Amino acid sequence: MKLCIATADEVIPHHKWQNYIQPLMAKLLTATTADASLIFDAAEVKVTPGESLTLSCGVKQQFRLCLWSHEDGRSFLVEDVHAGAHPGMSAPRNLTDNQCGINIESVSTEDSGAWTCSVFLADRGTEFHMTKTVTAACHTPFTAVGGGCFYFHEFSKNWHNARDYCRGMSTSEYTVDLATVDSCDQLGIIRQFILMTYEPVWHWIGGSDMNEESNWHWVNGDTVPSSVPFWYPGHPLIDTTANCLCLEEDYGYYYDYDCENIGPFLCEEVPITTSYK
Ligand SMILES: [Ca+2]
Fold first, then answer.
1. Structural domains in the chain, sorted by start
2. What separation in angstroms does the CA of 210 have from each of 157, 170, 214, 221?
3. pLDDT, tens digit, for every residue of 184-201?
4. 231 near 253, Cβ under 8 Å?
5. Strand 254-257 and strand 244-247: pairing?
6. What pLDDT was estimated at residue 250?
7. How far is CA 204 from each of CA 34, 85, 211, 249, rounded to the nearest angstrom?
8. pLDDT tens readout for residues 20-79
9. What is the whole-number distance in angstroms between the Cα of residue 215 and the centre of ligand 1?
10. Residues 123-133: what's their mean pLDDT?
């Protein structure tokens, strides 16, 4: 059986963006505009993986070209981000004085590091570069895995007690509940993490159909995916004694199990609000 395989995001190789820039710069240099000044907040920002993050950068000038680059070599033309060419990135809600801003919809630890906004100005035939440092890290004792922050609890509890334990870890800064693992990529990465770190054992996660048989929901109210490849073949059962969701030990598929069974579990740290910084 084939489990979800994580795929790398498609990015523009660093050496290629020069090819994008030069023809556009030639066009821009024919324009004349008013004076320009860069608006930029260089303060370091700390975020939790899974949060959204707006990187702001603006210029008081009509003709411009903006590019964000990360220290690992990734580069993003802002007009491409705004046009939706990069999955997971979008235009900020407010572009006033923030024409070069981009929004990362779900920050991962790989987004930590220096982000540089380059603004190419038409009338000056020049460019500005400003750099902002992003730190994306989970709070102790959570581990960054597959774009989220998880706590793999090795001691065994039934589903309800496991959920109570997770919720008891909440603070004023973030909430904690049983994990919601709803992307194929994340499911595969969590499965690999469990295999590399622990014995191959099943783990409770935060889904159930206890309110209505065969109507599976996450603890946050969202619908649990019902399709292949999430569920163990033949599951979920139509069975009112199997109402809680776990990742089974053989392949890491979703599996419906009696909520009173005792097992280890995954808690997940969730930002209290979606922040725009
Ligand atoms: Ca059931």
1. 14-136 (2.60.40.10), 143-271 (3.10.100.10)
2. 18, 24, 9, 13
3. 888 999 999 988 888 889
4. yes
5. antiparallel
6. 87
7. 61, 37, 18, 11
8. 555 555 444 443 333 457 788 889 999 988 888 999 998 776 557 899 999 999 999 999
9. 8
10. 81
Q: Residue holding tokens 């860069």?
A: 38
DSSP 8-state code for residue 251? T
Distance from residue 261's CA to the centre of ligand 1 (Å): 14
How wide is the angle at C-alpha 207 spanned by C-alphas 163 and 49, nearest 5°? 75
User: Rounded to the nearest whole angstrom, what is the distance from the C-alpha of residue 212 to the centroid of ligand 1?
Assistant: 8
Peptide linkage before 264 cis (omega within 30 of 0): no
The Å distance, Cα 138 to ligand 1 centre, comes to 33
Position 118: which residue type?
Answer: S
Whose structure tokens read 């990362």? 104
Three-state SS across 100-167?
CCEEECCCCHHHCEEEEEEEEECCCCEEEEEEEEEEECCCCCCEEECCEEEEEEEEEECHHHHHHHHH
39 φ, ψ to 5°?
-110, 120
